[in-house]
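Consider this pair:
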Amino acid sequence: MLREGNEKVAKSGVLPTPPLPADLNKVDLTENADQVFTRRYARRDGNGEPVESIEETFWRVAY
C-alpha cells in the first residue's frame, strides 16, 4: 500500500488529500482576502487555473 502511495506522489508531484468532511464550515473571506488567497495559495492545474476551493485548501493544509 505504501508503495502505491509513493507512486502516485511521484507521478503527480502532490500528496493525496482525504475528502472534505460533510460538516466542514464555509470559510468567509473579504473580497480582497479571497483575491489574495486565490492568487497566492490555491493549487493550480497545468494551465494555471485554480483547482480547489478555499475550504479544500484549508483542509489540505490542516491535514
Observations:
- Residues 17 and 63 are 8 Å apart (CA to CA).
- The mean pLDDT is 82.
- The longest helix spans residues 2-12.
